Amino acid sequence: GASMITIFPKPPGVIRLGDSVTIFCSCQRGDGNFVLYKNGHLLRTLERRSSRAEFSISNATQEDTGAYNCHYLHGDTVLARSETVNVMVQEFHLPTPVFTVLPGHDVIGGAHVTFRCTIEYSRAVCFLYVEGQIRDLSLLSQERDHFNISRVHGGNGGHYSCQCRTNSIPFKWSVSKTLELVVR
User: Fold this and answer.
1) d(CA 157, CA 159)
2) Is the pTM of this model over 0.70?
3) 3.40.50.10580, 2.60.40.10, 3.30.2110.10, 3.40.630.30: which CATH number matches 98-183?
4) Closest CA to 160 of 73, 84, 81, 101
5) What integer is the mean pLDDT of 46-69?
6) Which GO terms describe its biological process (predicted)?
């Protein structure tokens, strides 16, 4: 059967110039190697740690911006390919968003949870991210600054953050602190 590779950056979303990001690739098969590509070009063979490999970028620069994906190989045969994850490195110029989770960080399964992200800047849009996923969960705006999860379960637990950017080009960015949601 076909093997699936999962790929995700940590932290998710836009990376602040000078910060670090790690790209994780994982596959359930155990008899091959991971190869990381950036913008379609072979970047490096990744060192395996059990069923996954990681590629760390420290002191990120604009040159680290790009489209990354992993291939899983046995010898010269490609067994699987991941989706593409876009890494963007930017300077952060906006105020830090205020990010909260209600009713709190530790909830009982079945509860209703609201993530709220607000920023002191008109005409900014914000995005909600959860670690381990490629894409944002939701686009937030001045009109709707929250994201609701009804009847949470264990799979909703994780590390969440919000990032905001201006609507005008060139974009200006900011990121919130990370909040952990624990579902019991």
Assistant:
1) 7
2) yes
3) 2.60.40.10
4) 101
5) 87
6) immune response-regulating signaling pathway
Provide φ and ψ at 154, rounded to 5°: -55, -35
What's the pLDDT at 169?
75
Q: What angle do CA 146, 14, 101 make, to 5 degrees?
A: 25
Q: 22-39 as b/e, with b when 16 or more CB fall inside 10 Å?
A: ebbbbbeeeebebbbbbe
d(CA 8, CA 69) in angstroms, rounded, equals 9
- Domain 5-90 belongs to what architecture? Sandwich (2.60)
pLDDT, tens digit (0-9, with 9 covering 90-100), for 101-128: 999 999 999 999 999 999 888 788 888 9
